[in-house]
């Protein structure tokens, strides 16, 4: 939800802003803009459309400024137009603001400012910040004080940066709820919505906490409290990712690269956590934490689908009653948290606002809270009792793939660990499951080798309007996720259903124009799913079947057959996810769509 970047240092700032925005573009890409202090003047350039439009607007200009900030927008208030793009300025064009979040009381503030004679040019909530800053600075406040007094008038979520002509070489940033990270370089300071934008300059970062104000200038940085203005310090942490992770490395899209990274992600997430011989799963993160009696998982989007698999595994392997909720629903319900309940927030980014709020609610109701996240430096991680860091590495494609995989593996490990500790799993069963888990990475490699099959099948979907994905048991969430992937990037209406539910309504949609994708691994539910698939053939639906490569019966009913390596049903979600990701990828790419930046979406949803 919007990407923001700010820089003070010796470099020419415009390329720093453009490169930073390129790395943050996944957060929103409706418009892009920048504000710099160029030879004593505040220069603002902003354009609707992708970053390219901004680059074109400044092409050929030789800026020398070394202080500046940039913004890539995901529209909330105000249409996608130049005037609604950030930065926003005050009446005199001397103060610039960029913002991520939503100012809930902006209308009241705006009305009050208009009464005082301020002139607004945009429809955004953000513009009030620039005019409130103007009021403060006109009354004699310093940049820092003006930002603090302005922020105290705002309701809602925000991370904003301000820059003013009267205060050269300084940027002040304030955070409440929306993410913001400070990169501490040598002689240069950089602020960004997310760590990847900073990695080219430094690996030493400080994530801002709620209620932090930070000023960056040529001397360094200084933290202050939003509440009372007192100064304090925060210690930088070192992040390991290298800047190359943010490159496509020869793949056409980040999504394709990330799909192909999954065998390594599985190995990395298992690494050091599982003893293949004994099957023992050692999770340092949970040391000192008793095995819970109940589990309540909160998550959104793809993380929710991984959590649905997690529920199945926790109940099957550890016999712990587990519920899964959309965070956006959970936070507005009156959930019951019994003694012995563990809350688990599953979130790749660790910044999804609803998931953060749901976790806070769980915690306030007395649950121990665990974060399963790809971002150890995130807010959710900081606010949890236990953080299980998935080892997916940096994921740039907006459609989650490898982070989903890492979340699945995290659930296998946690379920096995809990099952071993509460006596549900004996040594022999544990060893068997451990060996199954360890074989998955290689099986995924096998599936990726025949990605070409998915590319061929995808050609049939270019003109399709509706699709149905079906699975059962542990693969029902995989059907949901497969359909979500297709929807997100190819804009085909796709629905995931529990195969047994097909006949209770969705079957009415089926005809020769509505393909059905069936997940049919060998296992206890095989015959049931097989019969469900027959029902769709009887309605003339083209049928794509994912099944064991030797499964002749499946081949016989399939219009298109996707051969899968042999795998036990319990572990099949891991490898059966891959062809569905590839089907969505090749469909979207074949339709000429922007795979890595699908319309209307953002990778990290930090507004409600
Ligand atoms: C957005 C992304 C999805 C993601 C969801 C939850 O909608 O586009 O890919 O699954 O947020 O994100 P999280 O970071 O909490 O896993």
From TrEMBL:
Positions of the Glutamine amidotransferase type-2 domain: 2-219
Compartment annotation: Cytoplasm
Domain SIS: 282-424, 457-598
Keywords per UniProt: Aminotransferase, Cytoplasm, Glutamine amidotransferase, Repeat, Transferase
GO molecular function list: carbohydrate derivative binding; glutamine-fructose-6-phosphate transaminase (isomerizing) activity
Gene Ontology biological process: amino sugar biosynthetic process; carbohydrate metabolic process; fructose 6-phosphate metabolic process; protein N-linked glycosylation; UDP-N-acetylglucosamine metabolic process
One cellular component term from this protein's GO annotations in UniProt: cytosol
Domain of life: Bacteria
Record field: catalytic activity: D-fructose 6-phosphate + L-glutamine = D-glucosamine 6-phosphate + L-glutamate
Documented EC number(s): 2.6.1.16
InterPro entries: GATase_2_dom (IPR017932), GFAT (IPR005855), GFAT_N (IPR047084), GlmS/AgaS_SIS (IPR035466), GlmS/FrlB_SIS (IPR035490), Ntn_hydrolases_N (IPR029055), SIS_dom (IPR001347), SIS_dom_sf (IPR046348)
Residues at the active site: 2, 603
Main location: cytoplasm
Coiled-coil residues: none
Top EC category: transferase
Function: Catalyzes the first step in hexosamine metabolism, converting fructose-6P into glucosamine-6P using glutamine as a nitrogen source.
Subunit: Homodimer.
Protein name in the entry: Glutamine--fructose-6-phosphate aminotransferase [isomerizing]
Species name: Candidatus Cryosericum terrychapinii
Underlying gene: glmS
């Amino acid at each position: 939800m919007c990407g923001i970047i700010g820089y003070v240092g010796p470099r020419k700032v415009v390329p720093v802003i453009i490169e930073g925005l390129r790395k943050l573009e996944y957060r929103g890409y409706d418009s892009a803009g920048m504000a710099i202090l160029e030879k004593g003047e505040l220069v603002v350039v902003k354009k609707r459309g992708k970053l390219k439009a901004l680059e074109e607007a400044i092409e050929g200009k030789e800026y020398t400024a070394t202080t500046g900030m940039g913004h890539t927008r995901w529209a909330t208030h105000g249409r996608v137009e130049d005037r609604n793009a950030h930065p926003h300025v005050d009446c005199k064009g001397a103060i610039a603001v960029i913002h991520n979040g939503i100012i809930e009381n902006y209308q009241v503030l705006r009305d009050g400012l208009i009464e005082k004679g301020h002139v607004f040019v945009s429809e955004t909530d953000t513009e009030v910040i620039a005019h409130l800053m103007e009021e403060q600075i006109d009354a004699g406040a310093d940049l820092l004080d003006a930002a603090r007094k302005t922020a105290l008038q705002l309701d809602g979520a925000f991370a904003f940066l301000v820059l003013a002509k009267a205060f050269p070489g300084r940027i002040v940033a304030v955070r409440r709820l929306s993410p913001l990270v400070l990169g501490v370089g040598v002689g240069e300071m950089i602020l960004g919505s997310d760590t990847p934008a900073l990695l080219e300059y430094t690996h030493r970062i400080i994530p801002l906490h709620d209620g932090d104000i930070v000023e960056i200038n040529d001397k360094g940085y200084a933290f202050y409290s939003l509440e009372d203005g007192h100064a304090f310090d925060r210690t930088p942490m070192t992040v390991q990712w290298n800047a190359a992770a943010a490159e496509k490395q020869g793949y056409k899209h980040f999504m394709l690269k990330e799909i192909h990274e999954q065998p390594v992600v599985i190995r990395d997430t298992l690494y050091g956590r599982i003893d293949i011989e004994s099957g023992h799963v050692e999770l340092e993160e949970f040391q000192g934490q008793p095995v819970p009696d109940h589990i309540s998982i909160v998550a959104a989007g793809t993380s929710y689908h991984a959590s649905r698999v997690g529920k199945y595994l926790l109940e099957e392997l550890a016999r712990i009653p587990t519920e899964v909720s959309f965070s956006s629903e959970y936070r507005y319900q009156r959930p019951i948290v019994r003694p012995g309940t563990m809350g688990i927030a599953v979130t790749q980014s660790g910044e999804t606002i609803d998931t953060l709020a749901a976790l806070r609610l769980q915690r306030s109701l007395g649950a121990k809270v665990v974060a399963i996240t790809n971002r150890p430096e995130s807010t959710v991680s900081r606010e949890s009792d236990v953080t299980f860091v998935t080892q997916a590495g940096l994921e740039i494609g907006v459609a989650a793939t490898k982070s989903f995989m890492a979340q699945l593996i995290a659930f296998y490990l946690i379920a096995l660990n809990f099952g071993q500790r509460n006596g549900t799993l004996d040594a022999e069963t544990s060893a068997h499951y451990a060996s199954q888990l360890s074989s998955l990475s290689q099986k995924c490699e096998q599936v990726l080798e025949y990605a070409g099959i998915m590319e061929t099948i995808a050609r049939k979907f270019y003109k399709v309007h509706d699709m149905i994905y079906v699975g059962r048991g542990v693969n029902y969430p995989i059907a949901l996720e497969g359909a979500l992937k297709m929807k997100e990037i190819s804009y085909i209406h796709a629905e995931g259903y529990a195969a047994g539910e097909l006949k209770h309504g969705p079957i009415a949609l089926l005809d020769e124009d509505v393909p059905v994708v069936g997940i049919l691994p060998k296992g206890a539910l095989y015959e049931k799913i097989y019969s469900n698939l027959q029902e769709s053939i009887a309605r003339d639906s083209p049928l794509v079947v994912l099944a064991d490569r030797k499964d002749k019966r499946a081949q016989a009913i399939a219009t298109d057959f996707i051969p899968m390596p042999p795998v036990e049903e319990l572990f099949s979600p891991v490898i059966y996810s891959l062809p569905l990701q590839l089907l969505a990828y090749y469909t979207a790419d074949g339709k000429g769509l922007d795979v890595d930046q699908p319309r209307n979406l953002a990778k990290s949803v930090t507004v409600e």
